[in-house]
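In full, the data:

***
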Amino acid sequence: MKLISQLERLTSAVTRKPVDKVPVVSFTQTGTLELMDASGAFWPDAHREARAMATLALAAHRLGGLEAVRIPFGLVAEAERLGCKINYHEGKSDYTPTVEAGPPSYERLTIPDLRSGVTGEIISALRICRSRVGFNTPIIVGVTAPFTIAGHVRGINEILLDLILNPDLVRNILDQTWEVTVAFSNELLRSGADFIALIEPTASIIGADFFKEFALPYLKKAIDAIEGPSVLHICGNSLPMMELIVDAGAQGVSIDQTVSVAAASDAVKGRCSIIGNVDPVGVLQLRNEDSVIADCSRILDEGTDVLAPGCGISPYTPTRNLNAMVRARDSKVSRSSARRS
């Protein structure tokens, strides 16, 4: 059998083509305290400085065994460039950055120069990672999707009320934020990214009707305009919205651990790949290696196209449990080969 690269394998799996084995990657954040100690790159610096970001991301690939490099580790870079005030939680290596306040004005946003600020650091980190791993290892870059950026800009509690009380304002903000998602995604693809992971955690809390009216149209426009492969990650129980999520047009859907892989596969009917969905806390953080292997084996049996965490990896995750994901996959491949022989 012809040997294929990790990039070829992941590309085939995401596009539902035959693979020699299921890839083991993360389309969500990969920073952990153990990897920080091992690499010498710590949060919050690794959230906003290219070299630290690249160093920590490479550790998840080289030490954690994940078969792709994934940057960044937070969801606020776009919001920072739009003028939001960001709390990087100085001195705390187990916190991801959060938005403290929106920009002075959100009714007329200006698409910033994404090659500067924190988005510029992400682009630089991407280039460092590419220089270190070459072109056979996939690099995944997370980009915040339009509705979540809108929640950062307006305030999540405010925008949830606006859905009912001021829907035109929501649409006005989304008319701007989807362009930021596209502009950043395409800048990353031009800089060497292989996959864009569109992260839309906020969309799962608004329900199917609001998702269809507000989030979906802008996801569609963004995905259509992104000049490369994309995977859409939505937190929470996305199964009631799965038909709508597939309509967004991403090549793959990354599902939360609350969703059954088998049920998600039935819902998408082969129209996109299913990625996931190991519980990042209940399994990867808290269980031992044997339990991780058992849970991964169950997910592989259910038919996931790509074995991955169901959400961002907890910073308290032991590195041995990331390696156990790969061991689980390899054990399945070995048993399958033994049966064929």
The longest strand covers residues 139-144.
